[in-house]
Amino acid sequence: MTPQPLSPGGKTLRVVAIVLFAVAAVFNLLGGIGTSCVALNPTRWGESMAQLARFQWLYIVLMAGAIVVAAWGIVVTVGLARGRRNAYRNALWVLLLSVILAGIQTYASIALRGKGAPQNMRFYLTALVLVVFLLLRLPPLWRLIQGFDGGGQGNWRTPTGLAAFMGGLIVLTTPLWATPTHIGPDGANWVNVLRTPLLAGGVLLTLAGVGLLRRASRGPRRVRTPEATPRVARRSVSP
């Protein structure tokens, strides 16, 4: 049975859900990378961060876990866009694991140094996206978007391109929204430690998103079939 094409509302909801998932994955990746500073050398960043030194092992585990799960989330983003098997189930696992890791880190930071920022932002955002994905499983919404496992076939480049573009913008603007929570006791901006990889990664993601969106706007590629060569009737020559 041929699947029915998605309605405009279903298509929009599906794309928004995929972009939200990608944004959560990027936030968790940035959170894991940002944790590397305190996880690898907590005494370098002032007295407040030095209080985490006793639990350095915990932050190393949280850092590695966040990066690995977020990297998996990027792969799952493509799976959601392409309607691959078990993509929705994998997305729930990514969100659930990310919420647990971000929640543990937020709680530990509040208990040890009295502040949960910026990891609390990561926790709240991921929890919100998890709730959205659970709501999508309600029968009316699930039918509207035709699910994710094999549903919504068609132009996968649009949701993937939007996800990459939004992720790139988030990475590029990290110095703007992360600076207030990354000012050291001496007034130094700790975000500058990762400024170069942030700019490089953000530019690559943004350009990849633009490229995919441009290809999506051109529509499906036409497959040229060779024209049939007219047969020329042979004349039989009598001896």
Taking pLDDT < 50 over at least 5 consecutive residues as the criterion, the unreliable ranges are none
> Helix share of residues?
55-70%
> What structural category characterises the helix and strand content?
mainly alpha
Query: Number of helix segments?
Result: 9
Strand content: under 5%
Rg is 24 Å
**Shape descriptor:** globular
How do the SSEs run, as a string of H and E? Answer: HHHHHHHHH
Average pLDDT works out at 80
**Biggest sheet overview:** none
Query: How many angstroms separate the termini?
Result: 59 Å
Q: Would you count the extended β strands for me?
A: 0
Explain what the structure shows.
- The structure is a single chain.
- With 239 residues, this protein is mainly α.
- It has a domain at 8-155.
- It has 9 helices and no strands.
- The radius of gyration is 24 Å and the shape is globular.
- The model has no long low-confidence stretch (mean pLDDT 80).
Task: List its salient traits.
239 residues; mainly alpha; 9 helices; 67% helix; globular
Summarize the structure.
The protein has 239 residues and is mainly α. It has a domain at 8-155. 67% of the residues lie in helices and 0% in strands.
Question: Helices, strands, pairings?
Answer:
Elements: H1 8-40, H2 46-50, H3 56-82, H4 87-113, H5 119-136, H6 139-145, H7 157-172, H8 174-177, H9 195-217
Helix pairs in contact: 1-3, 1-4, 1-5, 1-6, 1-7, 3-4, 4-5, 7-9
